[in-house]
Design a protein that fits this description.
Strand content: over 45%
Strand order of the largest sheet: 1-26-25-24
Radius of gyration: 17 Å
Structural class: mainly beta
Shape: globular
Distance between the termini: 35 Å
Length: about 280
């Protein structure tokens, strides 16, 4: 049985962040967040917030992933590009802007597969059912990895055993699992849960349970094989306000951190969950 958390359990880490959706944990435990104005923020668990990069062209920054060299892979919906950002040199290099010969529409969220390739959701236009999942291999070659989640594919996460990829579709809401073949191509897809919500982000725990954060309603769910339960909710949209994505971080990977897209802040709960170590290449 999982705990349900209340307003009193939630701590605000930082405020004044311009509509942050995506976040990731850095190599030293710091948290990076994007914004709708092309800024990248760095946040410590003590609450220190700094702007560490700014796209010259602005941008709408969604999913972020850390690389082993400290660079960030950043999905930019406005530029229709995934950037590789070197925070030291302040350079923004194109990592991917197409799936083979197909131009990206709305790169949204990504993660690494066990072979070091990078997969990310290209959500497509809202309610057009044209979304795809793109794979960029270790040589930099991009291709369509799967087109089996077309309804605005959004958050994704590698399973705890590395054998499948969890994918959320936002409209209509759905959680699916795509098996990963031995050559790291996409295998069979299984729909795990239809959701009466607009799910956005998914985080995997060591028990195999999934934390699912939503753009609408203002709820963070927990899903396991027994079904869907509420981890935290807010009918007034104050301490939970479009909690788009989450990470489990801290020394014990039990601190659940998320940006409140609707409130320009970042919040945290100390949970009884434990996040899996993320693959970094």
């Amino acid at each position: 049985m999982y705990a349900k958390y209340q307003h009193k359990d939630i701590k605000t880490l930082a405020s004044g962040i311009d509509h942050s959706e995506g976040l990731c944990v850095g190599l030293k435990g710091e948290i990076y967040l994007g914004s709708e104005s092309g800024k990248i923020y760095r946040l410590t668990l003590e609450g220190t917030l700094d702007v560490v990069a700014q796209s010259a062209a602005g941008g709408i920054l969604l999913g972020l992933s850390i690389r082993s060299n400290g660079h960030l892979l950043v999905c930019d919906a406005a530029a229709k590009t995934v950037w590789e950002v070197n925070l030291e040199s302040q350079s923004w290099e194109v990592f991917c802007n197409s799936a083979g010969s197909v131009a990206l529409i709305l790169p949204n969220w990504g993660c690494f597969l066990p072979d070091g390739s990078y997969v990310f959701s290209d959500s497509g236009d809202w309610k057009k059912s044209e979304g795809i999942i793109v794979r960029v291999d270790s040589s930099g070659k991009s291709s369509i990895w799967s087109d089996k989640c077309p309804d605005f594919p959004n958050g994704m996460a590698l399973s705890e055993d590395g054998r499948s990829l969890y994918v959320l579709e936002s409209t209509p809401g759905k959680l699916s699992s795509i098996s990963i073949n031995s050559d790291y191509s996409a295998g069979e897809i299984q729909v795990l849960k239809q959701m009466d919500a607009v799910p956005d982000g998914v985080t995997v725990t060591t028990s195999g349970a999934l934390v699912i954060s939503c753009y609408r309603p203002d709820v963070i769910y927990l899903w396991d094989k027994k079904g869907l339960s509420v981890l935290a909710e807010d009918t007034e949209g104050t301490f939970l306000a479009a909690p788009t994505n989450t990470v489990l971080t801290g020394p014990d990977r039990n601190l659940l951190v998320w940006p409140n897209f609707g409130r320009w802040d970042v919040a945290q709960i100390e949970t009884d969950l434990s996040g899996i170590p993320l693959l970094i290449f």
